[in-house]
Design a protein that fits this description.
alpha+beta, 4-stranded antiparallel beta sheet, 15 helices, 354 residues, 36% helix, two-stranded parallel sheet
Length: 354
């Protein structure tokens, strides 16, 4: 039996149902394209992201791409003031699972043939979707997600770059009908037929540090971590099967008041264990403040009043903005008596008076 077949058989035994292979040389095609646009990429990506496989690993021959589904059944939203998490954040950090499975595959190759390899997942040097597409795992939708037949785009992706030459898999034909439902569903207009503006994408906004651009805050709605709008709108994601496994306590609809009173220990033991945990509690609480401002609910005033005294300027400044969005006398009274103590808060206060 060929090594590629043995590898796929082993993958199935350890719970990987979607594995594809492509020649490493296929990934060379994207390097010039990225170099021209590297200043437009999200800042958290590594400097070697999209680098030529031959630069990453001398004598690179093959890329092994895997997809692991993460969709879980969605419970009904609670009646309390709550935010929303993207589905990838409902479960424990998927990076850990991907790396565990990829390491098992790499160990198998070493045992069978001897191999040098590099493992990559999400923020690794290999572009996950491009590698998976070349390996025949799926096709691109207009929302730039990779769709795996039978699973939709509810998958996480990882790769192994190896110096072993393996039999490649054929590409998967596109099934995108270009209905543009994903584009229409994008709340900020970040998604267009010609591309994705990361600086407007809600998923990126919920992960960036510092101050969220004022004009984009109302468009974030109740998003706390990530955004599934374009995926939810896609016809190919309707009726996708769910995967087994529990969701984290507090997911998918974290209580906004509880988020604001959460300490680092509670964060680390709960939602901080998800893939959004890498950005930390301050970013998460800032997003919760924006969600409270967008809620238009009278019960949002009291928790926002409390965080006006938070020691972190970024929290206080967003709380000023959020109170300014609430059409209630109690919110107006709080703002009228406010004496900003830092430049960020003063700037937000001045913007409300303009």
């Amino acid at each position: 039996m060929r090594l590629a077949s043995l590898l796929k058989e082993y993958a199935s035994e350890i719970g990987i149902d979607h594995l594809g292979i492509s020649p490493a040389a296929n990934l060379e095609a994207i390097a010039p394209f990225l170099e021209e646009r590297r200043d437009q990429l999200p800042p958290f990506l590594p400097r070697d992201w999209g680098q030529s496989p031959s630069q990453l690993l001398p004598d690179a021959r093959s890329v092994i791409a895997i997809a692991i589904p993460y969709l879980r059944p969605a419970p009904a939203p609670p009646e309390s003031l709550h935010g929303v998490l993207a589905r990838y954040a409902w479960i424990g950090d998927y990076h850990l699972l991907l790396k565990e499975k990829l390491q098992q595959l790499a160990n198998f190759l070493v045992k069978e043939r001897g191999s040098r390899f590099i493992i990559s997942a999400d923020t690794g040097p290999i572009i996950d979707r491009f590698a998976a597409y070349n390996a025949g795992l799926g096709w691109y939708g207009l929302n730039r997600s990779l769709f795996v037949p039978g699973r939709g785009s509810w998958v996480v992706l990882g790769e192994i770059l190896t110096d072993i030459e393996l039999e490649p898999d054929p590409p998967t034909a596109s099934r995108c009908t270009e209905c543009r439902r994903c584009i229409k569903a994008c709340p900020t207009g970040a998604l267009t037929p010609s591309g994705l503006d990361y600086n407007r994408c809600v998923s990126h906004l919920t992960q960036m540090k510092g101050m969220i651009p004022r004009e984009l805050r109302p468009l974030m709605g109740s998003a706390l971590g990530g955004c599934d709008r374009c995926q939810e709108a896609c016809p190919h994601n309707q009726g996708a099967p769910t995967a087994a496994g529990d969701i984290l306590p507090g997911a998918p609809y974290p209580n906004l008041v509880e988020v604001l009173t959460m300490d680092k220990e509670a964060w680390a033991a709960g939602l901080g264990r998800s893939a959004i945990g890498w950005r930390g509690l301050t970013v998460f609480q800032r997003n919760a403040i924006i969600a409270l401002g967008n809620s238009q609910h009278p019960e949002a005033v009291a928790p926002l009043a409390e965080v006006l005294h938070d020691p972190r300027p970024v929290i206080r400044a967003h709380a000023v903005w959020a109170l300014g969005q609430l059409p209630f006398p109690a919110a107006r009274r709080l703002l009228s008596s406010l004496e900003p103590q830092d430049p960020l808060t003063a700037e937000e206060y001045a913007a409300l008076q303009a």
